[in-house]
């Protein structure tokens, strides 16, 4: 038992339990179960309740968390993991190697992957076996360049509580988690509110500084500054205009600080490539859509709120970013592409092909705070070249469900990328098509081969070149059209200390992250 760590956790918690909770606005999440994570907002809570095998520091370097060590053997074909001794789940049961093996097996279940396929790399680990209570041996047919990223995404759960039933999305444990991290859930959480308290039994090496957190969905909240004034909030992402006004001192002076950071994420149009379901199965039409990105409108906004047009699938914060891809869209090229493909203007201006099919498309978007939205701007640009796009607004989760079920033609929403580009492979590969993670119904054997090659390439420079080739093929085939790189824009209450961002532009899922936050008196 590691008494110094236990005493540190006890002293922190006993000193802090009397303090106010840190109140954080988070857009609605879907689960608190690490097996079923589908979006970044899930991770914002899960990262406080569960420790990972390895985590990253603020610079993006991998560091141990639940693990004491990892040893690579046989040229990368075997890896021995050693868990830290004396660690327990929040119900007091010991954390054991069998829990790690159970989690790996659960993440590979088809009924789990149908819900959450964002940890595809974990499934690529060929074999995990427990060798005693604290040792796990990984056996691989081929070495993995993604190994540490895969371990980062493998968040162990207690095997005695997380057995996967026939309907995993409906399991009560999804909102009554029993974790391994420094915070535990108080009462039952919902998709809109969760309260966390410092757990005195935490014996890990990454404790929390705050007494408690309260996270709630503020996606429809309008009175943000009054929430800060009355301390219903200490941290919140805000629309660009609110950020700008606070940054310039026109609002919130002395109460909040405006902070921003580029994310490894972008706003995008995901396009339906299935010719049986969408006219975007025609490559010429997809290429025309890619030429209609409203970059002039976005560029005008850069005078007030700096942003960056996305010219590559992986943004500048990612090591897979290809700086050579920088061609700007041109509406005139869109018209030429459609003309050459036989889409001719009809009597009402809407193009149609030789089969009489009218170029009318359906786009889905989540609710928007800034109008016109990216989807609405696209519709305006499209109308000028004879494409009619109907834009419908649904809750974010409903939009992603439409995309996963391949319903509609265009889905406009933000996409956050991962530490390793291999994690994004389900967006484009045949395996992702089977699990519905390939939202675009895009199938290309060369893409499948390159992602597999990248996964098993150890040399970093060689891996980077593989993902540059993937970027160029994605740009050519257009299953997705990145629009602009997302900026994290937040307001931070004057009492909140320790807010930093990692290399991906996140304030969570790294050390110290939100575990380092505290409230000044």
Short précis:
By secondary structure, this protein is an alpha+beta fold. The protein has helices at about 5-15, 40-50, 95-105, 110-115, 120-125, 145-155, 225-230, 240-245, 285-290, 295-300, 330-340, 375-385, 395-405, 430-435, 445-455, 460-475; strands at about 20-25, 55, 60-65, 65-75, 80-85, 125-130, 135-140, 185, 195-200, 210-215, 235, 255-270, 310, 345, 350, 360-365, 390-395, 410-415, 480-495, 495, 520. The longest helix has 18 residues, at about 460-475.
Keywords:
single chain; 521 residues; D-Maltodextrin-Binding Protein, domain 2; Dipeptide-binding Protein, domain 3; 2 domains; 16 helices; disordered N terminus
The secondary structure category is: alpha+beta
Helix count, DSSP H or I runs of 4 or more residues: 16
**Shape type:** globular
Multimeric status of the protein: single chain
Q: Please describe the biggest sheet, giving its number of strands, its sense, and whether it closes into a barrel.
A: 11 strands, mixed
CATH class of the largest domain: Alpha Beta
Please give the radius of gyration in angstroms: 24 Å
What is the residue-mean pLDDT, rounded to a whole number? 90
Which helices and strands occur, and which strands form pairs?
Blueprint: H1 3-16, E1 22-25, H2 40-49, E2 54-56, E3 62-64, E4 67-73, E5 78-83, H3 97-107, H4 110-113, H5 120-123, E6 127-130, E7 135-139, H6 147-153, E8 183-185, E9 193-198, E10 212-216, H7 224-229, E11 235-237, H8 240-247, E12 256-271, H9 283-290, H10 295-301, E13 308-309, H11 331-340, E14 344-345, E15 351-352, E16 360-365, H12 374-383, E17 388-393, H13 396-404, E18 410-416, H14 430-434, H15 445-455, H16 460-477, E19 480-493, E20 496-497, E21 518-519
Parallel strand pairs: 1-10, 1-11, 16-17, 16-18
Antiparallel strand pairs: 2-3, 4-5, 5-7, 6-7, 8-9, 9-10, 11-19, 12-18, 12-19, 13-19, 14-15, 20-21
Helix pairs in contact: 9-11, 15-16
